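Example 3.2
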Amino acid sequence: MSSLIDKLLKIESIYVSANSEAALILSEIQKLLLNLPDNELITRHGCGYTISKKNLGTDSWAPEHNDFRLQYESIIHALNEVPIEQTVRKLESILENEEVKVKKAGFPLIGWPGYGDAPRVNTISIIKINPVVLRNIKALLTPSTKVEGTEL
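Structure, written as tokens:
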């Protein structure tokens, strides 16, 4: 029995070590995503941005579509919501479907006593990933590929 316990403790130690290493790697990936270039066609102003109408393109006029930083952050958020062993599959799914689903806290339920303490109605937003963002992430994942808008 003690040899089985010893084996189990060894496996547990390996699991904890691997999980810690995976978390460090995920943290590095997140840093790399946040350092990818922003949309050169927009001008940031505090928490918002402006873009010329001629630069909107035909893909989507949704504000999220041109905000690369928001898309990178949304992808990171989506990756953080899954167990570490599902991270790669989640990223592959995001890149394949060219969209990321983001949970948002919505408005409080109206009519709730103590309106400010009311439970929030959670919504899910689907952000269509800009093709440039997709190329930048794929270039990041593929060795020796140039990321658009950088000297990397």
